[in-house]
Amino acid sequence: MSKDSLSIKDNRTGKSYEIEIDDGNIKAKDLRQIKVNEDEFGMMCYDPSYENTAACKSSVTFIDGDNGILRYRGYPIEQLADKSSQLEVAKLLLDGELPTSDELDKWLSDIKEFNNVPDGIENIIKSFPQDSHPMGVLISSIAALGTFYPNAKNITDEEENYKNICRLIAQVPILAAYFYRHSKGLNIVPPDDSMSYSENFLNMLFDGDEKKMNPALVDAMDTLLILHADHEQNCSASVMRNTGSSEPDPFSSVASATAALYGPLHGGANEAVLEMLSDIDSVDNIPSFLDKVQKKEVKLMGFGHRVYKSYDPRAKFIKKAADNVFEITGTNPLLDIALKLESIALSEDYFIQRNLYPNVDFYSGLIYESMGIPTPMFTVLFTIGRTPGWLAQWNELLNDKEQKIARPRQVYTGYDSRDYKDISDR
Ligand code: SDX
């Protein structure tokens, strides 16, 4: 008997089974041999919301939730946020290595080469009511973008995939800026190839407004994008992989991942945090709010995480970045409520017992708001940051020989066979 195995005895039948342990885990399919009767399907793992299921092997991002560690391709997030740039991090996530100077130059010029948004897209974006939620517009326009590149369906063509990866990373921020300008009744500001990625994004939003494009704010934006770039198998990355596993074009997969990110339990939390802080309105109201949280009437948005059972390292960094931003923009009046809310929550048993700490969404919205970005755009910024991570996960999926179309099983709890009843007999 190999020592790297589980010995399982099924007490229903007295039969014993050896299940191989590979890299500390078992293959769920190896449980299928465990049956009472031969004609049964065999045993499965029941794991609603996949709390203890590894759906893939990945070398893109590593998280140690107990110790608050996050690394992209082995590099600590703190070092990348301090020293790198969003596009360099995107290249790292996609290729697995930091680019050389020549490789980075080529990458930056490719991103600029593929940043021309098809004409029809501007009309599609302008067809939305100005008060539409930007995430609904972004989901729709990313999917629409794919229809202008019919060859994108050839996902076995690496050259084609590279072009579409460049298009998505280059054009998602442009779609976002186009809608922002439309929602304000302003003229579209085209991309400016003389600018860096984040500077260009802020310019497309604010059309050269020097106050809003202060170099320190450009840096803060780029750092925030880096901090959002990937996070292993989170909800939206899993959707990216699931959608990608049926082999549509990457625009459709990114649109589906964007839809998953939109939810307030995921990327939509940054918008929900600002609404929550505004509702609390004063530090005097924090005790009664936290009382409602402990009665489970409301959630403390921006707190808690499926993996981090300690402080989200990104939240720590964002909180630090906030100080630099507020030095320029003036502090956000909601910051005092957020800081007080955090300090009280972290001292209360309800949160301590459940390992609830601030996550990436708790402070990010305060920075965005101080930079002049409207609350409904916050998850759009999360999407811009996360697009390279989704594409790195998608690329890894396409090259993983163990992967095929995602199709989980179920535990059926419905009726056994029964005959149709005429309506007169119901
Ligand atoms: C992101 O997965 C990722 O990596 C996501 C992300 C990424 O980069 O991709 O990090 C980005 O989505 C961050 C999370 C943003 N969401 C929020 O801030 C929304 C508020 N947070 C919660 O909804 C919750 O914490 C989740 C969804 C983030 C995690 O939920 P889990 O892992 O399913 O935890 P749970 O719901 O099982 O909670 C365990 C307990 C429960 O209480 P009991 O039933 O044990 O009494 O903790 C409580 C929950 O009620 N709880 C909270 C809470 N989060 C959990 N109670 C109040 N407020 C909260 N925020």
Mind sketching the topology for me?
Layout: E1 5-10, E2 15-20, E3 61-64, E4 69-72, E5 75-76, H1 77-83, H2 86-95, H3 101-113, H4 119-126, H5 134-147, H6 158-183, H7 197-206, H8 215-227, H9 235-244, H10 250-262, H11 269-280, H12 286-294, H13 313-329, H14 333-345, H15 349-353, H16 360-370, H17 378-398
Antiparallel strand pairs: 1-2, 3-4, 4-5
This protein binds s-citryldethia Coenzyme A (SDX).
Task: Describe this protein with a few key phrases.
50% helix; binds s-citryldethia Coenzyme A; 5 strands; Citrate Synthase, domain 1; mainly alpha; two-stranded antiparallel ribbon; 17 helices; 426 residues
Order of helices and strands: EEEEEHHHHHHHHHHHHHHHHH
How many DSSP E strands? 5
CATH superfamily of the largest domain: Citrate Synthase, domain 1
Q: What is the domain total for the residues?
A: 2
Relative strand content: 5-15%
Number of alpha- plus pi-helical segments: 17
Q: List the uncertain runs.
A: none
